[in-house]
Amino acid sequence: MSCKVVQPPEEGTTYFKIMDCDCTFTLDTQKLQKRYLELQRSLHPDNFSQKSVKEQENSESQSALVNKAYKTLLKPLSRGLYMLELEGMHIEEGTDSGADSAFLMELMEINEALDEAQTPEKANEIGQDTKGKLADLTVQIDAALRKGELHTAKALLAQMKYYANIEEKVKEKLSGFM
């Protein structure tokens, strides 16, 4: 800030630090959005078209980093996965992370009910149930992360991933009724 020249991104800085928010699962998304807009106003490459090539490049990389940090921290699922990543844990794509058969059966039944939904009201009802399950998972994941129970948080985030997929399918179904 003091030299009034955009610097290259600092190596190893967390998205939480970039976005000036607490490293917590339940963060204030309005504050996050406000910070995102502030940063983009000051770092956007259009503001540096008359500056040196190096400063333009730094502006582009900083702006891209801010975009990535914002998108990652905005949604609970990507935020939780990122928090696990910071602790050295990863959820592999395409694995069920040890999901039990009862949970998988429940998901199958929800998906079937959604496929068979003939009215927007029925699809919306499934959507509301899914939102409730996602809210419950958010509370459980936050508690697990606060206690440092990373394996529990990882299992809960895997469940959240399934419910987030159902939530997307509900949105698609509802748009199909329009």
UniProtKB/TrEMBL annotation:
Chief site of localization: cytoplasm
CDD domains: DnaJ
Cellular component terms (Gene Ontology): mitochondrion
Gene3D superfamilies according to UniProt: DnaJ domain (1.10.287.110), HscB, C-terminal domain (1.20.1280.20)
GO terms assigned for molecular function: ATPase activator activity; protein-folding chaperone binding
Subcellular location: Cytoplasm; Mitochondrion
Domain of life: Eukaryota
GO biological process: [2Fe-2S] cluster assembly; protein complex oligomerization
J domain: residues covered: 14-86
SMART domains: DnaJ
Keyword Membrane listed: no
Family: Belongs to the HscB family.
The protein's name: Iron-sulfur cluster co-chaperone protein HscB, mitochondrial isoform X1
Organism, as annotated: Lates japonicus (Japanese lates)
